Amino acid sequence: MVRFTGRVAIVTGAARGIGAATARRLAAEGAMVAIVDVAIAKDVVDEIAAAGGRALGYACDITDKIAVETVFHRVATDFGGLHILVNNAGITRDDLFFRLSVDDWNAVMAVNLTGAYHCAQTAQKYMVAQRYGKIVSLSSRSALGNRGQANYAAAKAGVQGLTATLAIELGPYNINVNAVAPGYIATDMTAATAARVGSTPEDHQRAAAEQTPLGRVGQPEEIAAAIAFLASDDSSYVSGQTLYVNGGAR
Fold first, then answer.
1. 8-183+218-245 carries CATH number 3.40.50.880
2. Which candidate in 58, 117, 126, 152 is catalytic?
């Protein structure tokens, strides 16, 4: 299946986890992929190249609007366009609300929500001009509330509101805007959450699996598959939606 031939995709936070899996998936289906992270992710770029795909790495702090504009211009120049944006970059700074510091609140908001705003506002300029575009942002099951993640939950709920609004405003320009809200996915981020609560990644995953109808936790590649659908023309009449990918958990 080759759905992205001739398309240029930016994936933020693509050095590892869901972002890296998404970059690999889009490249495998023909996209030219810009791997954007705080440092150039040479290993992911090399892996894609070894598999026969096209990718370049870019260092960017997405909390800096000027840096985003500069890097996105470089991507459009290097690849000849910009068609797909995957807002994946995210961080956690978990703590119970009564202890949650202003710095940890602001850091999570800056990357997870304001960063998505910076990237989407920059990308839409290219997409509006060509009357085509796909924006897919990462929300989370935590948007529904999660103990110790008031900052992260608020940011990811904000992503859903941003998604719904951009779908309304950008729809007339043939731009689809959607979000994916993963449940428990086996990544470095969930391993860090396990450590925060005094557990091992294995025990933490086992406990999460017991609460999931499918009886297991998810893998980054499974989220990448959902993102690829929303970034493709297979989803041409889907916009303003948040797709929960969580193994049936309620």
1. no
2. 152
